[in-house]
Specification:
The protein has about 350 residues and is α/β, with parallel strands linked by helices. The chain folds into two domains: about 190 residues, Glycogen Phosphorylase B (Rossmann fold); about 130 residues, Glycogen Phosphorylase B (Rossmann fold), CATH 3.40.50. The chain contains ten helices and twelve strands. Strands 3-2-1-4-5-6-7 form a seven-stranded parallel beta sheet, with helices on one face. Helix 5 links the parallel strand 5 and strand 6. The longest helix is centred in the first third of the chain and has 21 residues. The two termini are about 20 Å apart. The relative contact order is 0.13.
């Protein structure tokens, strides 16, 4: 069973290459999540069995500065969801005769009976301002309960996650599995000047969408605007130079990014992995209140790979900064899935 956290679409999308490889190695994956993350996985793999897990139900505030405190206030609700998914996992192990579990940041999806539990995260250190030590300590305690923890990054000094995904000394159950992406780089002509890829929780997704539409409504640039909404609702922008899609999946998304000169997006870790694989130049706008995205955006700028700005400071002229930066780079150290999956076949 492959279970993804429903927090934006990043956790689900980085599970896609793992699910594909499980099938290639003759495993039968079962999909598990909730909300838009589950919808995404079901659209990518309509022929696989899927399971609805209890939602964490985290509500994002309109002001990012309030996120940490709102999360603390909602911690009892989150703990109840973790307890519920733990109970549900116990029944799913028996119902589907599961041989292993891969959980991308779902803390309660684990089975003591199986002892074949993998946790996927890029955050061994969970940044939360002046409470980072506490949030990291709690997260690391959960991770210790899993037999293995897979970090989608490199262990070397040349890595993507920085201090988020690296501890000294390294815990014994940690494995660095290389950059995960379901996309492949293609040498194709540019059709669009920019592709805008929105993602993440509401209401911040919609707030950024409104800011971008206001700034770009009169542009003569060719833009592909992907809203990041798993919906069939019609949405148009009154500018013939802007092509709007609610979502794109699989090869369609791969083609769209490859044929775009620049990318504008959040600085979520899964997005960074995709853009590194495709070696794209980008401009990042971190989600307000998400310390991880803020850190990653700052790190990309410090490494002279890509510029960023805060959401409230964005204007179209800032996109001119992209050319001053080198762009993200492919690390070229790919996951050996056969070795990883041997864990599920061993006694």
């Amino acid at each position: 069973m492959v279970a993804a956290l429903n927090w934006g679409l990043g956790h689900a999308t980085r599970c896609i290459p793992i699910i594909r490889e499980l099938e290639k190695h003759n495993f039968e994956p079962i999909l598990a999540s909730d909300g838009q993350a589950l919808s995404l996985l079901e659209k990518e793999f309509p022929y696989l069995t899927s399971v609805l897990l209890p939602p964490y139900g985290i509500e994002y505030p309109k002001k990012g500065v309030n996120f940490k405190w709102k999360l603390m206030m909602e911690s009892p609700k989150i703990m109840r969801a973790i307890k519920a998914e733990k109970k549900m996992t116990k029944s799913l192990v028996n119902k589907y005769d599961l041989q292993g579990i891969i959980s991308d940041n779902r803390l309660g999806v684990r089975s003591k009976k199986l002892k074949k539990n993998v946790f996927i995260t890029n955050q061994l250190n969970v940044l939360s301002g002046n409470t980072s030590f506490l949030s990291s300590y709690i997260h690391q305690n959960y991770i210790r309960k899993f037999e293995e923890c897979w970090i989608p990054d490199l262990e070397t000094s040349k890595n993507l996650s920085g201090k988020l995904g690296h501890l000294n000394p390294k815990p014994g159950n940690i494995k660095y599995i290389g950059i995960l992406s379901r996309l492949e780089k293609k040498e194709v002509p540019n059709i669009y000047d920019y592709i805008i890829i929105l993602s993440g929780p509401e209401p911040q997704r919609s707030i950024l969408e409104s800011i971008l539409i206001k700034e770009l409504k009169d542009t003569s640039l060719k833009i592909l605007f992907i809203r990041g909404v798993i919906s069939e609702e019609s949405f148009t922008i009154n500018n013939p130079n802007i092509n709007v899609k609610n979502y794109l999946f699989g090869k369609a998304l791969e083609e769209a990014i490859n044929c775009s000169k620049y990318v504008v997006s959040r600085s979520g870790y899964t997005t960074l992995m995709d853009l590194a694989k495709l070696e794209k130049k980008a401009f990042f706008i971190p989600t307000p209140g998400q310390w991880e995205q803020q850190y990653l955006a700052e790190r990309m700028q410090e490494l002279e790979l890509a510029p960023y700005c805060q959401q409230e400071d964005f204007n179209i002229l800032k996109l001119e900064e992209i050319e001053k930066y080198g762009g993200l780079r492919d690390f070229g150290d790919y996951t050996l899935f056969g070795n990883l999956f041997a864990f599920f076949q061993s006694e």
